[in-house]
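Take just one protein record:
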Amino acid sequence: MPESTAPTTPSRLTTSPTVMVRRSIELMKPVTWFAPSWAFLCGAIASGASQWTWTDVGRIALGVLLAGPILCGMSQVVNDYCDRDVDAINEPQRLIPSGLVSARQVFITVAVLVVLGLSIAMFLGQYVALMTAIGMVLAVIYSAGPIRAKRNGWAGNTIVAVSYEGLPWIAGHLAFAPLTFGSVLMAALFSLGAHGIMTINDFKSMEGDRVSGIRSIPVLYGEIAAAWTAFVTINVAQILVVMYFLHVRNWVIAAIIGALVLMQIPTQWKFFSIADPRKRAIFYNASGIAMFVWGMMAAAIGVR
């Protein structure tokens, strides 16, 4: 019988350290690490103070490790643990409800990530440590009761967008230099855009959200209205970025980001022609988000 469908027994929790580490990393969902890691890199570039020296490259590498594997990984573990009862009904094969990962292992994993995260953050500076602490608090507020912000699509997506884009960007900047207006504005606008991307991601879990009482934006307003809400949010955020660079007469960056926005329109329009909401999210994640991501880098270079 495959491991994922075997009955839960104490022996399943008695395994090698290598397997336990592998399962903890699986709980941390490496596929989610890119966004905050990229945002930290963009913030570091936006600071204008990072150079191609071994010291600065090392600091960026530590920041990327902090934002992605450690902090984002920690938030994923916390979220899976808080969702264990719902997952036991909807997805009993997952690591925690299946008994492959114990509560003790979850707590140890979170503790290790918290200690590592705060240690690296303090090394990068007290303001980076402050952003890190705020991110950790938001991770708990998002997933855990009594607040459990994920139950509301607007509040939950705002927390995720700020945690994945805004805070890492600002932390990346603060790791090298004091904040500037342009950099903070870019962090805020790309967080707004990320809110729309989070709404697209919610399409793939609509059925489970309805059953578990999570009022995601697709659940609240239906598929078409939610899609329009998401794309208006994504595009308005990027158009405001273009307007900023037009205002400061940085024509090249404005043109680059404007072109990237236009390239997203056909992808977004095609989104409405796909019948299955889950395939809609997969399709857009595979095709549309790349231009948004490159727009972030262009903006970071433009404000440095």
Remarks:
- The domain at 180-304 is CATH 1.20.120 (Four Helix Bundle (Hemerythrin (Met), subunit A)).
